[in-house]
Amino acid sequence: MRIEDEIKQPIFRDEYQKAFINLIYTSNWLQQRQAAAFKGFGLTSPQFNILRILRGQHPLPATVALLIDRMLDKTSNASRIVDRLEEKKLVTRTVCPANRRAVDIRITKAGLELLEQVDESGVLASDGNCALNEDEMRQLNFLLDKMRDIE
Fold first, then answer.
1. Dihedral angle at the C-alpha atoms of 33, 36, 37, 43, nearest 10 degrees?
2. pTM for this one?
3. How many helices (H) and strands (E) does the chain have?
4. How far is CA 15 from the centre of its chain?
5. What's the CA gap between 132 and 136, in Å, rounded?
6. CA–CA dist 148, 146 (Å, integer)
7. How far lies 75's CA from each of 16, 80, 81, 139, in Å?
């Protein structure tokens, strides 16, 4: 559906305004769909993001600073998210032997198994979750990367 119809705004100042509003609207739409999908696994989107990062690090540990650096939502409270994941036995925290002030965070076997279930469920697959084909997604990725390349 066109953004004009979604938000009931037939006129925009220009194509830039329309694109920015469309991007924000679409981002929120995607986040809502993702949150609904993760709810069935007992996860929030930020928790899934932390687990995804830890799986990429596995078997090496991560620190809270590394998690914050790699998180998609930089405003999320990584320490609190790790607390919740630890309560669910999806991650462990241990004092780093090389630096006793640092804490090593690792994904557990249960965390890896949960991510495997998410992967197998197809909730993140492109099939049925998006009307764009692979070439269009490639073009979209290029344009989004280009949009952020203003420095």
1. 130
2. 0.84
3. 7, 2
4. 28
5. 6
6. 5
7. 26, 12, 12, 28
Q: What is the pLDDT of residue 126?
A: 60
| Polymer length in residues for the chain | 151
Q: Which SS3 state, helix, strand or coil, does residue 58 take?
A: coil
Scan for tokens 């607390």, then name that residue: 83
How many CA atoms does the CB half-sphere of 138 hold within 13 Å?
3
Write out the chain's pLDDT in tens, 151 residues: 899 999 999 999 999 999 999 999 999 998 898 899 899 999 999 999 999 999 999 999 999 999 999 998 887 799 999 999 999 999 999 987 877 788 999 999 999 999 999 988 877 766 556 788 889 989 999 999 999 898 6
Whether residue 10 has a cis bond before it, omega within 30° of 0: no
Total Cβ atoms within 10 A of residue 82: 22
Contact by Cβ (8 Å): 66, 58: no
Q: How far apart are the first and last CA of the chain?
A: 33
List alpha helices for 3-107, DSSP H.
3-7, 15-39, 45-57, 64-70, 78-87
